[in-house]
Specification:
about 20% strand
Length: about 550
């Protein structure tokens, strides 16, 4: 090539270069190194794929969590339904239903349908197992349902669920009321022939209702059982064979059960004697066998009309004082006609002057000693002792009322405690309750709960120590030997007793304004019987009630 010739460089180009005066092609316009061709483009699409996959994963997680939460909501609704079912809370059950189920079955109809099944099948309780996991829109729950007539009904119900959040619930239908019940089936029972009813028998084997006195305790069967017929209806009546049906299907059977007779501890002859001794007076008589609490006779208002027990309550006050070391039988008290507590005067009966040892005060039933003694014992210990002797205890005997004493906090001052200690204030007792007090002293301080049938178990409880019981017994013997209860004495039999005269109107001189009481047991050192007599508005216990107690004791010991 000749020197000095200019080369035509316009025809030569390099990759990525642009000739002067030439417009770059679209492919060459500057787009940056990350958007070019080749490896950079592959990177770009890789990132897009990663983002898309991540978004899909997140969306899947959100959807899965949403479904999981919906399932948890439905499961929680099922648990609430079952828990309310166990409680028998139909309202709470209904509130767990879906809105559509609530629309189909209003609350009143829903609750009525369950009550109908419960009544028909005699359901008593529902116990559920753990609510299972949801499968196909349902959760399974195993149930054990106790029926009074058919025993245990066991099985599972599959609760249909739907909705989420606040709308999640049980999509209820009537077939869910009992395990095994199918859609459209009604729950009903079918009974066989009625069984022969058992008899209520007296202690001697005769029918209790053979006498008017016995019949008043036995009660009647029709139109509705009363008395002992009511209390022991299931035992006496038995029941016919029975079938439980779901629709036309028999799902449970029970055999017939014959009625069984009921043996009572009541002695008809002694009941007649007690009623005769009462002689038409308004009052009551109760007789107990001390060793086992067997009630042998009841007459008049023996169990149904509690009255102030008056000085018979001093048996309990004396026991409390001795048991807690507040006094001894020889503790001495001043002679007085009254005592003043919280500024109020409490007088002795007829204004008599009495005192001396605790034993002498007990024999003479001296309020001026026992009211301050009660205040010294204190409300808590006095009430505790009374309750141990049976105050506040409800009996299984038909129509019986409990003996009662105010709660300790309500005996707010010495006057209230002192009045309660002499059987006044708000003290109320039945002859049966006070006979049990006497029987407890008779047995050495161990109380047998009163019972009127041999079916009831003998329930004994230590109330006071044997020493305290012996000391009180000795005082009660002296009451009949030389004190206010001499009218209860029986030739050849040592009787222990305590009189009571309970004011119905404070400070009244009219005997009709006082109830007469007497509590006794005999023989004193080998007690076979304890008696309590109460006469409404009859005046002094030693004059009015003690003679009646003597007649009843004599009849009881003669096995009349």
């Amino acid at each position: 090539m000749a020197r000095g010739r200019v080369r035509n460089v316009g025809s030569v180009s390099r990759p990525g270069s642009v000739l002067l005066g030439e417009r770059p092609s679209a492919a060459r316009r500057g787009r940056g190194p990350h958007f070019g061709s080749g490896p950079s483009r592959r990177v770009r699409w890789g990132w897009i794929a990663v983002v898309a996959v991540a978004a899909a994963i997140v969306a899947g997680i959100v959807a899965w969590r949403s479904q999981q939460q919906a399932g948890e909501d439905r499961h929680a609704a099922a648990v609430r339904f079952v828990t309310a079912w166990e409680r028998g809370d139909h309202t709470a059950m209904w509130r767990t239903l879906t809105s559509s189920a609530r629309a189909r079955y209003p609350e009143a109809a829903f609750a009525s349908s369950y009550r109908s099944v419960e009544r028909t099948a005699g359901l008593e309780s529902v116990r559920a197992g753990k609510v299972g996991g949801e499968h196909g829109g349902r959760v399974s729950v195993t149930l054990a349902i106790r029926s009074r007539d058919f025993g245990m009904l066991r099985g599972a119900v599959a609760l249909p669920l739907s909705g989420r959040g606040e709308q999640a619930g049980v999509d209820w239908q009537p077939s869910l009321r009992l395990p095994g019940l199918r859609p459209g089936e009604a729950v009903r029972t079918r009974a066989g022939s009625a069984q022969r009813r058992g008899h209520i028998r007296a202690a001697d084997g005769t029918q209790l209702d053979a006498t008017a006195l016995g019949a008043s305790l036995a009660g009647v069967v029709e139109p509705k059982p009363t008395g002992l017929q009511r209390v022991y209806d299931e035992r006496l009546g038995g029941h016919p064979s029975e079938q439980l049906l779901f629709g036309s299907r028999v799902v449970k059977r029970t055999p017939a059960v014959l009625g069984h007779s009921l043996q009572t501890t009541l002695r008809p002859g002694l009941m007649r004697a007690a009623n005769a001794a009462l002689g038409g007076k308004v009052g009551g008589v109760a007789v107990i066998r001390p060793r086992d609490g067997a009630v042998q006779a009841l007459a008049g208002l023996a169990i149904s009309a509690p009255q102030p027990p008056g000085s018979t309550f001093k048996i309990i006050t004396t026991a409390a004082a001795l048991e807690h070391g507040v006094a001894t039988p020889s503790t001495s008290y001043p002679l007085a006609t009254s005592a003043t507590l919280s500024g109020v005067r409490l007088g002795n009966a007829s204004g008599e002057r009495c005192g001396g040892t605790l034993t002498q005060a007990f024999i003479e039933s001296c309020n001026s000693v026992f009211a301050p003694l009660g205040a010294k014992i204190g409300a808590e210990r006095l009430v505790e002792t009374a309750r141990a002797f049976g105050f506040g205890e409800r009996q299984t005997i038909p129509a019986s009322k409990p003996s009662t004493i105010s709660a300790a906090p309500d005996l707010h001052d010495d006057l209230a405690v002192g009045a309660a200690a002499i059987g006044q204030d708000r003290d109320l007792a039945t002859p049966l309750g006070m006979a049990s007090v006497g029987a407890t002293i008779a047995t050495g301080g161990q109380r047998a709960r009163p019972r009127v049938t041999t079916l009831d178990p003998v329930v004994r409880r230590r109330v006071i120590s044997p020493k305290t019981a012996r000391q009180v017994r000795s005082m009660m013997i002296d009451v009949v030997r030389s004190g206010t209860g001499t009218a209860a004495a029986i030739a050849g039999v040592q009787v222990a007793g305590k009189t009571g005269t309970a004011e119905l109107r404070p400070n009244s001189k009219d005997p009709k304004d006082a109830d007469a009481w007497f509590v006794a047991f005999a023989p004193a050192r080998d007690p076979q019987v304890a008696v309590a007599v109460m006469l409404v508005g009859a005046g002094f216990g030693g004059k009015a009630a003690a003679p009646i107690a003597r007649q009843v004791l004599a009849a009881a010991l003669d096995r009349g």
